[in-house]
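Holo model, zinc ion. Inputs:
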Amino acid sequence: MNGWRDKQEFKTRVLEWAAKLDVKVRGLYVRPMRNKWASCSTAGTLSFNGELLEMERDLCDYVIVHELLHFSVPNHGKLWKSLMRAHLGDYEHLEARMKQATHNPAGSGPMPLT
Ligand SMILES: [Zn+2]
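Output:
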């Protein structure tokens, strides 16, 4: 299934994942971002690129879980990878699809995730 009904539906999904992963989200924004899919701050604020609303849901799950895990694991090390696998299964496949599906507007390769 492609896309989301609206911003609210996407945010609801984020909060469902946050509850599941036991993450306290203090601020949640979906807004235009030029060269990132998402970012999180140590203050507990999450921002997602509005373009995600047009993307497949399983790819969005990848982005959402990726960011939420950074609240407890700030890097992409072994622990982060094992948590990604625990929640999303074959996340590397999603990661590869995300890279294929997307390139940043500057044309310099895939948009990064923080
Ligand atoms: Zn990351």
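The chain has four helices and three strands. The longest strand covers residues 27-31.
Archived with the compound record.
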